[in-house]
């Protein structure tokens, strides 16, 4: 497969954004804003350094993640997400779908740790997305590391969002009311087990993320690709100590398309090579409604992408529910037949 090979030198790496520049005085912060504005507007993807997350924090999460995937399959299947109407828990390799085709990865889905809130008659069905996680009894350190990561990355993403809003001339605190203590962050621990062996190369198919910002920790294997201005998918080479950041659909909605939610995908590693990644999704409250952002570029905004196969919802819960029903058909059929019928 050659279609993803970059042909232009400028495509070799994504823009690199140093968040610590925000604390080094006004000139340095202005320069950060110029770079961030361009990266978010022109590409929708960048590498984030200077985020303050330490190697010890990253190692604690990575070690617990690898230990999870080394558990006997029965221990992982004890957390099968098919048993969770909240789409939490373990998805075995081959059970997830993107773009209607099978993804070749297994993963643990973790969200804010809250009691279930079963929607009553007339209440939005997205309340199903709130509920308890499923944790491996044999690995208590996984729960500790994952919940700490959610807190830590929520703080980084909050800082980054404020700088990004400032960079495009918007009020930094404009979306504070839809985050707060009822925000709905999400974390996945993901393993790509290598080639499926049948010629399909889809680790995860092309998609956009549902929320505001995604901060991805990837190992050194590679395989993540983003769709760029030329319409082609380009490799995102791993960069040590950096998070790959992409903008989600809600920022596209918020800015009427001025900021891009960029399509991305993962090509399966060759042979039996495993790849591990940890995407963290910075999402607002399920009932948070994204009001149009007041900023100077709004008058030049091109409008949001219109794709009948992927409507964008301004009320976050609907946007996430759309994605989960599509990605996890076994959970959807077991627990949410009436929602599938209504869709
Ligand atoms: O594993 C990766 O590098 C990306 C995963 C991803 O895009 C997702 O799960 O939304
Ligand atoms: Fe993604």
Structural class: alpha+beta
Distance between the termini: 36 Å
Shape: globular
Output mean pLDDT: 94
Low-confidence stretches: 1-9
Number of helices: 8
CATH architecture: Sandwich
Mind explaining what this structure looks like?
The chain is 29% helix and 19% strand. The protein has 343 residues and is α+β, with helices and mostly antiparallel strands. A hairpin with a 5-residue loop joins strand 10 and strand 11. It has eight helices and 14 strands. It has an eight-stranded mixed β-sheet. It has a four-stranded antiparallel β-sheet with strand order 8-13-10-11, with no helix packed on it. Strands 4-5 form a two-stranded antiparallel sheet. The radius of gyration is 19 Å and the shape is globular. It binds 2-oxoglutaric acid and fe (ii) ion. The site of fe (ii) ion has 4 residues, from loops. It holds the Pfam family 2OG-FeII_Oxy. It comes from Streptomyces malaysiense. Belongs to the iron/ascorbate-dependent oxidoreductase family. Keywords: Antibiotic biosynthesis, Iron, Metal-binding, Oxidoreductase.
